[in-house]
Amino acid sequence: MNRHTSRGARARSLLALGTAAVLTLTATACGDSGTGTGDEGDGKGKIVFWDNNGGVRTEVWKKIIAEFEEKNPDIDVEYVGIPIADVQSKYDTAIQGGGDSLPDVGMVGTAYLAGMVAQGALDPVTDRIEDSPLKGKLVRGMVDSVRAAGGEEELFTVPTSANQGVLWYRTDLFEQAGLEPPTSWENFYEAAEELTDRKENRFGFTIRGGAGSVAQALEMMYAQSGIDGFWKGDRSTVDDPANVAALEKYVALYDKATPKADLNNDFTKMVATFTGGEVGMLQHNLGSYTDHVKAFGEERIGGLPMPPATEGGPRTLVSNPVDGLGLFRSSENKAAAWKFIEFAASAEMNSLWNESAGSIPAHTDAADDEWLTAAEPTRRAMESLDDPDTRIVQLPYYLPDWNSISKADTEPGFQKLLLGEMSAEEFAGDLAERLNEAQAEWNEQKG
Question: What one-character DSSP code corresponds to residue 119?
Answer without folding.
Answer: T
